[in-house]
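Dear support,

I submitted the protein below through the web form. The confirmation email said the job was done, but the results page showed an empty box. After a refresh the structure appeared. I'm attaching both so you can tell me whether what I see now is the final result or a partial one.
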Amino acid sequence: MNERKLGLETRAIHAGRLDPRIEGAAVTPIFQCSVYEHTTEGADYHDVRYPRLSNLPNHAVLARRLAALEGAEDALVTASGMAAISTTLLQVLLEGGHLLIQDQLYGGTHAFVTHDFHGFGLSYDFISPDDPDSWKAKLRSNTRAVYVEAMTNPLLQVADHRAVVDFAREHGLVSIIDNTFATPVNFLPIAVGFDLSLHSCTKYLNGHTDLVAGAVIGSTELVRSIRHRLGHLGGCLDPHACFLLDRGMKTLVLRVRQQNANAQALAGCLAQHPAVERVNYPGLPQHPDHTRARELFSGFGGMLSFEPRHGLEAARRFLDRVEIPINGPSLGGVETLVTRPVTTSHANLTEDELRRLGISAALIRVSVGIESVNDLIPDFEAALA
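What the results page shows now:
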């Protein structure tokens, strides 16, 4: 079976499966085992089959499927999205490396870079995603990588991703993108030229709010080096979590396309609501990056954020009144989630950092689920009334 010629829907279900099937089972079983026969003399340590080295059958199935979904050579699953991000950056930058990184980020990534880099002997500079001409001035002799997000958390900015790739190639940098918000359904970073695509699989790839996992996708050489680093740091994914992620990914395409449609409809409604000050969603024509998003993405995703017209108290009232969504952190599940990022995903940023990034205390982030939009919209309107 030539997986590269199969449609995305088919790859999400069948790519990477064990062949032959174990006892004919249609589903990959859970290999809940920590010891495997070792029959190869002189093998490399990282080729020894052991759970911490992320090379069990459950790991391998997921790695092959993730690589097939994004058109890459190889992939790796990790114990969390932050395990994928931190391990990748530590391996790519090595000792004394310097990183150029987008100025608006997921709070966990921002905290790792700003709080922990110094302890590892690493350095960084923030770059504006809309100003490629300014990036060169921040290059150093030890700059080794550039890092962006497909759509930023929580304001849904869309960087000039092709310019990022061109800049990285021109200056010999590893280009890294967090593709969590877009998913392989809406964006294929490897095809655009990124070296590495990262995911918090906790979110859309799993989609059912019942596990924590991460992924690194890219070339065989880069992924292998990151897998070796992960083996030393210990951020492997448990076989049962692998099983759940394997199951969740089979409905990825159907879920994300419904979330795309629901988010587009809800964003349009909120943009016209008199109680809403502004809506951040790249699918809206008034979004500053709408044209770029149309060129890059096949869908605008299931994430949006908005600010009520009357500030923090209005935001709190909305969160108290809305009935269908769950008020909680995380995103990408089948159920709609709402949160104020200043209290959850970006709680570790200072007031000055939040102000500089344009993240207000009243900002509400919405992860749109797959419920009927005919139920979601009236619920949001009633909560805003």
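Response: this is the final, complete result; the empty box was a page-load delay. The chain has two domains: 3-249, 252-384.
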